[in-house]
Write a structure and sequence with these properties.
With about 475 residues, the protein is of the alpha+beta class. The protein is built from five helices and 22 strands. The protein has a 16-stranded antiparallel beta barrel with strand order 3-4-5-8-9-10-11-12-13-16-17-18-19-20-21-22. It starts with a helix and ends with a strand.
Amino acid sequence: MFRRLALLLLLFSLIHLPLQAADLSAEERLRALEKAVEGLQQRNAELEREVSNLKRQKSSTTALNPEKRSKFLPDSKSDVEKTETTEEKKPIYVVPAGAEFKLALGGLLQTQYEGGDVSAFEGRFGSAAIDDRFRLRRMRINVTGDFAEKFEFKLEGEFAQSDTAITVRNAMGATIASNSTRTSFGGLDLFVNWHQYPEFQVKVGQWKAPFGFEQISPDPKLLTPERSQVTSGLTPERQIGVQIWGKPFSNVFPDHKDWLTYYAGIFNGDGRNITVNDNNEYMYVGRLELQPLQTKIFDQDATLKLGVNALSSQDAAGTVLSPAGSVRVNSDGSLSTFTAPSAAERTAYGLDAYFHLGPFDLMAEYLSENFEARPANGVPPLFNDFTADGYYVQAGYYVIPKKLQLVAKYESFNPGQVANDNLSSITGGLNYYIHGDDIKIMAHYIHTWSDFREANPALGSDEFDEFILRLQVMY
């Protein structure tokens, strides 16, 4: 385009040159023509620089504000330039849908190595033995919140569990097919709690029924990697229902609000994430916690807590009566869950105590549960009544304050099925708190012995050893 313009100007000059300088010689006209061409070339170079600067400014503006951009799409005939209009991206905001005052996202990861006689302390030996393994013990994510009208809620899910298990055993009691070892996702704590009055609160949804001190203690704060077998075997774990609870002295004696805490709940009684009731009856659970001592002894913080709880439930045939643990004694002395072959009734109670003094912690608990068969709908009882019970004593001591903790535990569990079926264990280990319970490492050794296998030496070894190494991260 600029070359055409220069040519036209040159012709125009050639036409008017004779008029303006008719009397000039040929040599003078040639010099004038060369000067005119030189000026046109200079002007042409200036115009090209201006166009180049304009292009750079346009490219820079498009990069800063990409409202429009060009791209070349391959075509069978030719490359066709197409313009695509893209709106500027807006920032993403996550806001609560309701009138929450507080909304928090959190979670828990527990991954561990288990070697030796894995889970022997739970009665997993013989036909039920488990090999050495790496294990994703817990992987949770939760949302908690506090919103208008004095309501709080918690929604928590678990990636490392299976709520639905199908197990097939042969005549000898050995497992020949099972899907209970899959890692899947399921609901844990799913509840809403109304706390307008600290003395009288109402909770609905799914959570741990208030039975058993060790069971209702938060998983991340346990001093041992696993709960004792009596806790797993005799506590109802998470249930769906409604509960009233509170601290009666919250307003009367605010500095001693923990003197007394009560819980009273009604639940379906057939486990977590099960929305049907196995019959028209319910599980009734109650617990009282006393804290008669909270002071200083030898300039150290000192606390004493006492607890008592009770449970009553009527269950239909087919209900798993020990969903979180094992009470049934197999022919090789190993334990498994107990499913009622006919209608049953359960009554249970427990006592517990906890003492804290500076770097020292001591706790003990006793649990007992009676399983009774009862006639229902003309079907006679199909199993013999039995009582299972057990206890544990546990101590912890900080060798390095708030960092390195020594832990020792003794436990004993009596399934009550046959003579000499006691299962006992001793646990010893170290807990290293990198950042409190948020990041900690646990290394524990568990020695277990079976009275049943000792009385029946033909079954094989009656003593078992396991090592557990765990990394815990809360976020």
